[in-house]
Amino acid sequence: MQSLLSFLPDSWHAGPGILIGFGLLAAVMVQTALAVIGSLRRQAQARHQFQLERERLAYEVRLAKSRWTQIEHEKSSWNGWRKFRVVKKAAECADVFSFVLQPHDGKSIPAFKPGQYLTFGLDIPGRDKQVVRCYSLSSPPSDASSYRVTIKKEKAPPDKPGVPDGVGSSFFVDSVREGDLLNVKAPTGHFHLETAKQSPVVLISAGVGITPVLSMALDIAATGSRRETWFFFVCRNRSDHMLKAELDQLAARAENIRVVVCYSKPGPNDVQGRDYHTAGRLTPDVLKSVLPSNNYDYYLCGNGSFMKTMYEGLTEWGVPDAKIHYEAFGPATIKKTNATPPATTATGAGAKAVQVTFGKSGKVVAWDPATLNLLDFALANEVRIDSGCRAGSCGSCSVAVKQGEVEYLGGETNVGEAGSCLTCICRPKTDLVLDA
Ligand SMILES: Cc1cc2nc3c(=O)[nH]c(=O)nc-3n(C[C@H](O)[C@H](O)[C@H](O)COP(=O)(O)OP(=O)(O)OC[C@H]3O[C@@H](n4cnc5c(N)ncnc54)[C@H](O)[C@@H]3O)c2cc1C
Question: Which CATH number fits domain 82-157+164-188: 2.40.30.10, 3.40.1190.20, 2.60.120.650, 3.30.40.10?
């Protein structure tokens, strides 16, 4: 003790009383400091709580406003064709253009659900029939005065010389100009985000399949939703990277939205970190390596084989069927695990696959139960049938049934014109002869 005290200044050698005094003073100071820290912490917590509450209220106000706008806009919906003017045509990347449309009558337009599409009735010079095609809205519903679609020119298959490029998409890309008027049906479609929910989502797209899921992500950002959102997009490289500026802004603006871009074949000047995040195809393994768990609602859009791989990978990973939502722009055979059993002409050991005869094309093919509908089955067997919405509403894929019966996937009866079927939403019930 003596040696310890020898380090203290002389005035401090007054005795243990002073030491006790210092001890008490130190204890009071520590207690005061703890009280101050505690009070600061409580204040910070209260501030944080207040901030959260304010954000929650602001979000609810925005949601209420957007519901009100939606109700107001639903009143301005329409039946049949309505004229829309192309007010802007903008190149997005090679062969892809966006078109901003406003109603020619100058009246208001209905809000849509992010993920829905517009149906166009195209009067293409040299064609005796209107060409009906559907294009997803790539803008968010918060754009109350206009709609935007983003369209890729569908080139002829390289292995089929002499075949023309896609009719509708070529017309848009090559011929439609700013100021032109187009026939448009009101937004529709079952593939849309449940905006009332706050559960986490994963949005996955390939190529031009980005359009409906971009609208979903833009809606999440525009409404200020705190919903955890992952946005995966794959394209070949920078030259195919459509809507890049918008994706970059989305990633920078909303911290609950994380964007992952994959380039399947990066170009020599493409920079990882600036242009894309991962090189190679977007596969279920990429999702597994990035996502913290499989517990999300998944929205997929891309070509048939991409979606099939994704769907199968997600199912294997334990994602329930009800949490996987998808839309195909073209033929797709995603076999859902709850799909109805294969159509056969009899049951038991003597069961025989149903035969589909395409009269005009002179083809007789055994029905493949893994195929979703007669339209995809026809296209898979190189029988051309026109199509539009792929949802049974536009009537473009209607084909006369010369013999046999079909069944509708949603169990509908009395669909379309008598003696014909809407091939995009039905499958054979018995052996069939179609006028295709
Ligand atoms: C709900 C929905 C939303 C969609 N959203 C979008 C979107 O946002 N953006 C987008 O770009 N697309 C979208 N699509 C796809 C779009 O509707 C069209 O299917 C696409 O543009 C191709 O139409 P097309 O008229 O250009 O091609 P089609 O004329 O229908 O031709 C399709 C393909 O067949 C080839 N072909 C033509 N003739 C023959 C022949 N005799 N033999 C073999 N092959 C032939 C063509 O070269 C072309 O490659 C969507 C589709 C749906 C159903």
Answer: 2.40.30.10
Ligand 1 atom closest to the Cα of residue 387 is 30
* Rounded-to-integer distance, Cα 324 and Cα 226, Å: 21
Asked if residue 167 has its Cβ within 6 Å of ligand 1, the reply is: yes
Distance from chain centroid for Cα 194: 12
Rounded to the nearest angstrom, the distance between the alpha carbon of 264 and the centre of ligand 1 is 23
| Residue extent(s) of CATH 3.40.50.80 domains in the chain | 201-328
**Which pLDDT belongs to residue 351?**
60
Q: Sheet with 324-328: list strands edge to edge.
A: 278-279, 257-263, 229-235, 201-206, 297-302, 324-328
Instruction: Tell me the per-residue pLDDT of 126-156, one tens digit each, with 9 for 90 and over.
Output: 998 899 999 999 999 998 899 999 999 999 9
| CB 233 near ligand 1, within 6 Å | no
Mutate to test the pocket of ligand 1, among 129, 149, 159, 163 (most ligand atoms within 8 A of CB): 163
What's the sign of the alpha-carbon dihedral 82, 85, 87, 92?
Answer: positive
Q: Where in the chain is the domain with CATH 2.40.30.10?
A: 82-157+164-188
pLDDT one-digit tens code per residue, 386-423: 888 888 878 889 999 999 999 998 777 777 788 999 99
Atom of ligand 1 at shortest range from CA of 134:
17
What CATH number does the domain located at 201-328 have? 3.40.50.80
Domain 348-434 CATH assignment equals 2.60.40.10: no
For the CA of 327, the closest atom of ligand 1 is: 1
